[in-house]
Amino acid sequence: FIAIAVAIGMSVWRAREAKNAATYGSARWATFDEIRAAGMIGPDGVVLGKLDRDYLRHDGPEHVLCFAPTRSGKGVGLVVPSLLTWPGSAIVHDMKGENWKLTAGWRARFGRVLLFDPTNAASAAYNPLLEVRRGEWEVRDVQNVADVLVDPEGSLERRNHWEKTSHALLVGAILHVLYAEQDKTLAGVANFLSDPKRAIETTLRKMMLTRHLGDAGPHPVAASAARELLNKSENERSGVLSTAMSFLGLYRDPVVARVTSRCDWRIADLVEGEWPTTLYLVVPPSDISRTKPLIRLVLNQIGRRLTEDLHAKDRRQRLLMMLDEFPALGRLDFFESALAFMAGYGIKSFLIAQSLNQIEKAYGPNNSILDNCHVRVSFATNDERTAKRVSDSLGTGTEMRAMKNYAGHRLSPWLGHLMVSRQETARALMTPGEMMQLPPADAIVMV
Asked: 106 with 295: CB under 8 angstroms?
C-alpha cells in the first residue's frame, strides 16, 4: 500500500512539474480569475470581446489597438457596443456612416450628437479658423493650421523650397484674413490670394500695409510674409502662389466652403459641456482622398487643443477617440507623438487598422503606434507580418513531449521493451499559421 501511494504521489508530482515547466518560456492563456483581477469583467469601458456570458471590457487610461481585416466583424463586435455603452464624449471616424446610423440615436438620449460630413451641405459646420485664438497664441495656432494644409496626405518627410515658402505665405494670409477681411474662412483665404480683380503684387502690398493692430500698425508676421514674397522674382513669386493655391483647392468646392463657413460646435464642447458630445466624422468612400486634408486638420486641431492644459482634465468629460481605419488619414505627426501622453489629459484612443502593413505605410517602419497602445486585439489576419508580430507578442511556452521506443520482435504477441522519455521543448503559444486561421468568432486580446 505504501509503495502504491508513493508511486501515485511521484506521478502527480511529475505531472505538476511538467505543467509548470518554464525552461523555454512561461507564456499561457489567462484564467478567468486572472481576467477578473485585471478588471476586464466589469460594467464600464470599451468592449474588447466576449468570454462565455461576460463581456471583456477595458476602462483604464491605456489606448487600444485592434488589427481587423475588412468584414471581420469589428464594427458590430467592438465599435458599436463600445459607442452604445461609453458614457463620456467621443470622436468617431466613420468612413461609411454605419456607426452614425447604428449608435447616434441612442447616444442622443444622453448627450449631443454631431455629424460632420464635408460632402453634405446639411452637415454640422466647423470653421477651423474660428479656433485660432487672438493674442499670444494666434501665430502658433495659424502655423499649426498651415502645417496640415501644406501636407495634405501626411506623407512629407521634409518640405522642399516651394512648400516652405508657401507655408509662410499661408500663415501671413490667414492672419490678414482674420484681422482685415469679412470672409474669415479657408475659402476666404483662397479668394483673397486669387482675387481676379487685382494682381498678386497688389494683394501682397495690402497684407503689408493694412493696419491690423490699429495704432500698432500691420501685423508683423503678415507683413513680413508679404515683404518676403515681394522680394522674389516674378517667376518664383508665381510658383509660390501656385503651390499655396494648390493646398486650398478643396475649399473652392461650394459644399466644403459652406460646411467650413461657420462653427456649429467648438472643440471645447467635446470636453467641457454639461452633457457628453459625440462627433461623427463621416466621409463617403468616393470622397475619402479628396476630403482627407480637412479631416486631418480637424483631428489635428482637436488633439493639440485638448492636450495643452493638464489641469483641465479634472473638470472635463472623458473623451474616447474611436478611429476606425485610422491609417487612411495619412500620417498625423502630432497624433503619433501625443499617444504617449494624451491619456494624462483624459483622452482614450481606440485605433483600428487592417494590418501592420497599413500602419507602416502611413507612419513608416519605426513608428511608435504599437509601443503606445498597451491593449491589443487581433482578429484572424491575412497578413503574414501581422500574424508573426502577434505570435511573437504572445510569447513562447514550454511543453513536455513524450517519446516512445519499442523493442522486440514485430510478430511477437507482446513487445519485449517499452521505453518512454519526456523532453521539454519550446512551443509558440500561437503560431503565425494558427493566427491566420482563427475562427471568425474568435479574437486574441493582449493586456
From this structure: no
